[in-house]
Amino acid sequence: MDVQQSLKQINEQLEMHCKKGNISTLPDVIAVTKYVTIERAKDAYNAGIRQFGENRLEGFQQKKSALPDDVTMHFIGSLQTRKVKDVINEIDYFHALDRLKLAKEINKRAEHRVKCFVQVNVSGETSKQGIALDEVETFIKRLEQFENIEVIGLMTMAPFTDDAPYIKKLFKLLRAKRDEIKALNLNHAPCTELSMGMSNDFHLAAEEGASFVRIGTKLVGKEE
Ligand SMILES: *Cc1c(COP(=O)(O)O)cnc(C)c1O
């Protein structure tokens, strides 16, 4: 399917599900281009998409240099500390802050304040990256020492399952934690945003008030 068509369908779904969840603002769609070619990423650009997400350094650099410079670039994957210096000043948003050592390196290498999401492991599955829900507040308070880090929100990846009520429950928990942190009024952590929802579950994330959905397969496809 062409990107324009899939984008139209996704937008229709987002509208419907936001309405269902009583959400007045549609989430921003990040096109995750990690599975596709540069050509396909350009198709997405031509379909009107301006926000792109990649989870690896190489793919990130390729797509960023191929796309026009009016795009917003999201780094959505975990980042090895030694690679921070190669990417941190090229991105607009970092979605996977999950350890102090990484925060320290970002702080050292960044030439300006970086908009970060703290990644949360809401389900508690051992295979998932992220801070445990009940450690999020302590972790975020510790980030205050890093002047180049701004915690703009929380991010999660839901487990791969078609148990919709369960996924909705996880998204609700993340939203409640976001509200809790936001209410602390921390200068370094306004924590107003929610990055959640992928191809499988973006509609559920929309119902729960996601500000960014990260969609790969259903938007630009997946090349084997
Ligand atoms: C790959 C990836 C996505 C998109 O996955 P799809 O299921 O293809 O939509 C979203 N977020 C993160 C962190 C990813 O690594």
UniProtKB/TrEMBL annotation:
Modified residues (N6-(pyridoxal phosphate)lysine): 34
Boundaries of every Alanine racemase N-terminal domain copy: 38-222
Keywords tagged on the record: Pyridoxal phosphate
Family annotation (Gene3D superfamilies): Alanine racemase
Family, similarity comment: Belongs to the pyridoxal phosphate-binding protein YggS/PROSC family.
Functional summary from the UniProt entry: Pyridoxal 5'-phosphate (PLP)-binding protein, which is involved in PLP homeostasis.
NCBIfam families in UniProt: YggS family pyridoxal phosphate-dependent enzyme (TIGR00044)
Name used for this protein in its record: Pyridoxal phosphate homeostasis protein
Source species: Staphylococcus nepalensis
